[in-house]
Predict the structure.
Amino acid sequence: MKFAPDVLVLLGGPLVATPALVAAAGRARLVIAADGGVRHAAALGVEPALWVGDFDSVNLEDLSRWAHLPRLEYPRDKDATDAELAAQAALKAKPARLLFAGGLGGELDHELGNLTLAVALARQGVRTALSSGPTWAFALTPPGLELDLAPGTPFSVVPLADLEGLSIKGGRWELEDARLPLGSGRTLRNEAVGPVAVGLADGYGLLVATALE
């Protein structure tokens, strides 16, 4: 699983520092920690340049360890999540690719919010992914995306709207110019036989893959 983000955003969800995630984190030119996500910095071998949030989920140890970091501090009663605030800060660097580490798992409402945020960013032209380490989710928008997945890697295309002109190449089951309505499970649990290319004419969704490392 290879992904080279311009900006890495550390979120507070579950995270395993897999080799693929550590390698991706090391490629980022800017690291932003969102609230309690700062706790993942050491495991990924990165130093945040900015710490954003309301700091309601940060323990005393991390407050002391990372006290030197520049902060953007917000009140707890706010109209945006810490992930959104970190994304707003990230967009100022004009990234082509953004990775949320620690954005999957944990509380369901926040996980869904993170996934839809990733799609919204992709629709603005920022290729966006989320990872817990073992699991990766890539925002899927037209014209599609290509991933260098190892043979045998499980992956799924999950529609978040009706998908038109969907093609899948490099999987055990391939598609060509297909229509996939919202709610369809037709493209769940495929298997890579090499690099995977997903084409899309209209709609948006997610490509979810499980790393084999």
